[in-house]
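Task: complex structure prediction.
Instruction: return structure tokens for all chains below.
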Amino acid sequence: MNDQWTDRLSEYVDGELANGERGALEAHLATCAACRGAVAELRQVVARARSLEDRAPQTDLWSGVAKRIGAGQVVDIRSRRFSFNVPQLIAASIALVLLSGGGMWVALRRPATPSGTRIVTPRPDDFTMNASADRQATRIWTGRTDAAIADLQEDLQRNEGRLDTATVRVVRENLALIDRAIGQARAALDADPGNAYLNLHLADTMRRKLELLRRINAIAAAQS
Amino acid sequence: MLTTIAAAVLATLAPMQGETDTTIAVPAGASLSVNNFGGAIVIHTWTQNRVKVHAEHGSRGSIEASLVGTTLTIKAGSRHGSPSVVDFDITVPAEMALNLSGTYTEIEVNGSKAAITAETVDGSIDVRGGSGNIMLNSVQGSVTLADATGRIEVNSINESVELSNVSGQIKAETTNGDVTLWGIKSSSVEATTINGDVEYEGTITDAGTYTFTSHNGDIQISIPEGANVTLTVATANGDIDASFPLPFRGTREKHRYTFKLGTGSARMEAESFQGDIELRRPAEMREHQKEKEKDKDHEMEQEEP
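Output:
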């Protein structure tokens, strides 16, 4: 996992991406298992952090930490808001499991209302794509997904003979059902190319087709 | 040594007039694996550390069982190579993990307190009980799960999926059918279908995440009074209807709206391309359920000669 979205996943999980960016990232997620896995991990970290008891550790760790990083610059870290990259948050999730009784609350606790200094990765303030750029972006990711689907459909054609004819019929009917849904989503997105919901819906529906094909191919492969 | 002897003893169980009955002692913590090409796998539980197997099969059929390590494996065999149809009725320790699979196989589990994996192509899966990792998959059959807790993944392709009185991390998915979730206690729920309705009645826990999606169907969600949830609802061609006031949070996109209830701590997404999104109070959902059951009973009465 090392693509243009890797460093944006924590902002996505925090709901901080602009609509256009969010739609594009969600479309990417539909075709990138690594990023989907990272997002799931991040959500678990966030849920876990939120569920931690809001109490001070028995020993105040912060004074020791502050000494090591330079005395005299101690600020109230609890009033700050932090943005972590993916490896940091995954490491934090492991630390949370180990330290959920105490010290990590200092680092991950968030204020009820954001205030004070905010440390974030620099990014363009406005991410508004024009319709043409939106259509181009959609074409790129749907093209990749279409190619993956085509490969799996070829596999299915080779494997169909191993399946019962009734099962093949049911699978074809369900694939046709998904194809109709994809067609409707594509048409809606073509009319409104920057729409985040439609991008997401199309991506999710295409993901469903990929997963169905993978599952049926696995079942067929298991039949000897 | 003991394992080798057990495996040898259990290699093939002699059928008597198309039926096999045997009871096998298993160590504490043992798991059961059953593979049956066609027929049924019905599991009951008891408190003894023994597995009682009753199997009905054709005169050419046979049952193979082996205990290797802590895994008891039971398979339907055939003396002439072609797979046979067997109806298994198996009683196991309640804490025994279950791995059940088949092709033309109906699977039923009652009273388990353990992890369950069940997979079939053409058959339904009906599980009552279960704890820990629970994965249920059918292609052509419906899947129902009740009274279970743990990390749950329930999947069909061409039929409905129904969960009731279930707690834990939940993922429920089908392509051509409804997804119905009742009496759910969870901070993580994902329910999705292409051609069907989605219903959710259960807790909305602070900091929880809830996702409900359909392409062609309606989505009906119970929102308890006092729930703290940021709710994003989206529909391309349907309506959004709530039986209580929805405080608007300030993000309104085309087709997509966000509302904040209470502190907005939990996150919920409800999206249907063609269908409606309906937000109801729990009492209304229960009333709606009663009406549906009445309608179903009425339909069944009319179908009867």
